[in-house]
Write a structure and sequence with these properties.
alpha/beta, Nitrilase/N-carbamoyl-D-aminoacid amidohydrolase, six-stranded mixed sheet, 5 helices, globular
Length: 290
Amino acid sequence: MAKTNIACAQIDCLLGQPRTNLNKIVSLIRAAADRDAKLVMFPECALTGYAYESLEEAIPFAEAVNGPSSDAIAEACRETNAYAIAGFIEADRNNYYNAAMLVGPDGVVGNYRKTHLPFIGIDRFLTPGDRAYEVFDLPFGKVGMNICYDISFPEPARALKLMGAELIALITNWPTAAWRSPEFVANTRALENHLFYAATDRVGTERGWNFIGRSKVVDCNGDTLAEAGEKDEELFVVAIDFQEANNNRIVNVPGSYEVDRLNDRRPELYEVITRSQRSSEPLARVHSAD
């Protein structure tokens, strides 16, 4: 089957310098396209930086999804016939979001707002994402987006898989304490959902925060196809067959060792997952051994 090249651009980002960051993004879209990449992914808050001390400090660098940055990225995508995903702080009326823009040759295809916000950096001051998860049907495959802390929750990836995602693009800013996400969790999300998982992290230091790199692409079996180092900027390209993510029935030994990670689910038993913790009802029945 035909394969498509996707690229992870592991870069350092400068706090409060969107023009400089944008120039780097545009340059790397072109560099990735020179290696026949059709999708180029950049880190969380790649346009703005992350370690703001207040919302007021960050607001001057926030913009609408259809703004000057997406216009410049769209121009690079038109030149190269590629698509790009980049993190930014989105301004929408009086709300501000940690967001990702998905841009192609014809402009903005869509965007995603981070749904799980840790008490870290700019996330302390932003509005949680308020939209349903969405899968974008691009010319080469079906792509869903998540941002950083979202990886810590199995539900977003599962929701995207059930909606037909073949690749989840996670853009992230992993600090030192988040090392388990590239070490274990990205591969687990790919394996348990039988899809490709591409995590694009940043490097560098920002106001005392060290970012650990280790951007990676994982296949549908949970095996790492490529992984960047921990300190340096890197642009790597990986060829994947998006259609592999739809072969959900895995036959290891015909007739005696077969699994299907969709059909083998038992959703009738999972109701507790969607029940709010704020509910007065107990989350589960607890049986005493006495």
